[in-house]
Amino acid sequence: MLTFYHSPWTRATGVRILLEELGAPYQMRVINRQAGEQRGPEFLKVNPLGKVPTIVHDGAVVTEQVAIYIYLADAFPERGLAPPVGDKLRGPYLRWLAFYGSSFEPALVDYYLKREPPSLAMSPYGTYEDVIDLLSRQLATGPYLLGDRFTAADVLWGTALTWTTKFELVPQRPEFAAYMQRINERPIVQRVNAEDAELAAKHHPPTSSA
Predict the structure, then answer these.
(1) Which of 58, 62, 73 is nearest to 17 (CA)?
(2) Is there a single domain that holds both residue 96 and residue 174?
(3) β-strand 60-62 against 2-6: which pairing, if any?
(4) pLDDT tier for residue 120 given thresholds of 50, 70 and 90
């Protein structure tokens, strides 16, 4: 049994897309963040940090976005969304998944908060410009991160770039736009996003004008 803890319009959306792309059987438990359910005692027993996405699979709790992507794609290998150990693409696949959590997000947080850049010796990612340019060069080789092969890494990056460009944390570049279009045109992505919009509307009921 796989239980997936989800909130709409969060990092959990990409995990839900991945679960659907994998055809994985799962039970979804929706956490209403507007009602503070992420800090409720029941969920904190599962993830003490009160964060989504979180999954529980056969009794094993898996948190942290990148760990969940790696775990799920390996747990359901029949869909081929993770190069197996021994495949020449396994290393690059893990590289780009790890790069997201260890370099991309930290760089964007520093950029958003307008922090003074750390010295190169102390920075986990180099510079913000380094991160964006490296990703730009990789996606320019397209159509996906690993060339012609669509993987779980593309679910992560396609979802992330859609949000980060929307909020102007990442610049608009042709290679980013083309990549996001390819990901967002996938039927599963469109369906999950539509269902997320419905969930979000339930969590944000219209206020009375009276």
Answers:
(1) 73
(2) yes
(3) unpaired
(4) confident
If asked whether residues 71 and 98 sit together in one domain, one would say: no
Q: Which domain holds residue 105?
A: 90-188
| Count of the separate structural domains present in the chain | 2
pLDDT tier at 147 (50, 70, 90 boundaries)?
Answer: very high
Residue 195 is assigned to a structural domain of this protein: no
Confidence (pTM):
0.94
Assigned token pair, 120 = 């190169």
Q: Does the residue 209 lie in any domain?
A: no
> DSSP assignment of 35-62, as one string?
GTGGGSHHHHHH-TT--S-EEEETTEEE
48 vs 7: CA distance, rounded Å: 16
- CA atoms lying within 13 Å on the CB side of residue 203: 19
pLDDT above 70 (res 88): yes
